[in-house]
Specification:
Largest sheet: 5 strands, mixed
CATH superfamily of the largest domain: Ribonuclease H-like superfamily/Ribonuclease H
Number of strands: 8
CATH class of the largest domain: Alpha Beta
Helix content: 40-55%
Number of helices: 11
Strand content: 5-15%
Shape: elongated
CATH architecture of the largest domain: 2-Layer Sandwich
CATH topology of the largest domain: Nucleotidyltransferase, domain 5
Length: about 280
């Protein structure tokens, strides 16, 4: 393999009941983990989503309600999924916008914190779009000179994604063979994402900002002054659980900073008053 790994790399693909991160559920999860010694191991499970799979979605990935009802639920599979991934960096096709946010949402429903720290995310689709502007099937044909077999079956898609990723590394000498570089290159936006869904980001100063809507590019702290109810609206609206958790964390940090600043202001005021009293007594 042309990529030098400092830690494991896990290629992931999900099939689901639909495309809504907050309301749809996983029906198949497939993963290919490549360890630093270049050994590979796969994981592939049908998942009982505990909600109905629409007929039009069944027709796409071929997983029926009857098949899913016989499978384990995500909550039952979650411990082994987390163990399989470990501290791996993650690779996928359109994974930054769909697979990773959906996986994080499912884990949070199980009250499992999917830690972002020290983990890189490489989106092969973003590399592909920046280089060639194609779909996964076209990517397989373009890079690997073969048709995509078994499209919309997660294990076939995950193996195809890895094939395309390896071919990209060989085809483009200017792509550094470094996971951190590739994660940065494959991000679709200039801002660094804070949450998996990309609703929150960090600007060039490192401040957390809203990354959508009427307050896009404004800091959380700024909006909390301009429109205090916006924070509460987000917590009540149909946003991913991980987005809400990140927003709460940032707001708590903002409140703590303001409290400290107020205490420092009061302390300074007390010192000034003490000096005034001292001189007035002379």
């Amino acid at each position: 393999m042309s990529l030098t790994l400092k830690k494991s790399l896990c290629v992931i693909d999900l099939e689901a009941t639909g495309l809504q991160i907050t309301t749809d559920r996983i029906v198949q999860i497939a993963m290919l983990r490549i360890d630093p010694d270049n050994s590979q191991v796969t994981y592939n499970e049908i998942v009982n989503p505990e909600i109905n799979i629409p007929k039009e979605i069944e027709a796409i990935h071929g997983i029926t309600n009857e098949m899913a009802k016989q499978a384990n639920t995500f909550k039952e599979l979650a411990p082994e999924i987390v163990k399989f991934i470990g501290q791996s960096d993650l690779v996928g096709y359109n994974s930054n916008k769909f697979d990773i946010p959906l996986l994080a949402e499912e884990l949070l429903r199980c009250q499992i914190d999917f830690n972002l720290a020290d983990r890189q995310f490489i989106d092969v689709q973003n590399i592909f779009h920046k280089m060639e502007q194609r779909t996964l099937a076209a990517a397989v044909q373009f890079y690997c000179n073969k048709p995509l077999e078994g499209a919309h079956n997660a294990i076939h898609d995950v193996m195809a994604t890895w094939d395309v990723f390896e071919a990209q590394l060989k085809r483009y000498p200017n792509l550094q063979k470094d996971v951190t570089y590739l994660a940065e290159f494959s991000r679709s936006q200039a801002n660094q994402m804070v949450d998996f869904a990309g609703r929150l980001a960090r600007n060039e100063k490192g401040e957390v900002i809203y990354n959508f809507g009427k307050h896009k590019n404004k800091t959380i702290a700024e909006v909390s002054q301009l429109e205090p109810g916006y924070y509460g609206w987000m917590l009540e609206a149909d946003f991913p659980l991980h987005t809400k958790d990140c927003l709460r964390t940032e707001m708590e940090a903002i409140k703590a900073k303001r409290k400290q600043e107020n205490e420092e202001d009061l302390s300074l005021e007390d010192k000034l008053n003490a000096l005034k009293n001292k001189f007035s007594q002379r």
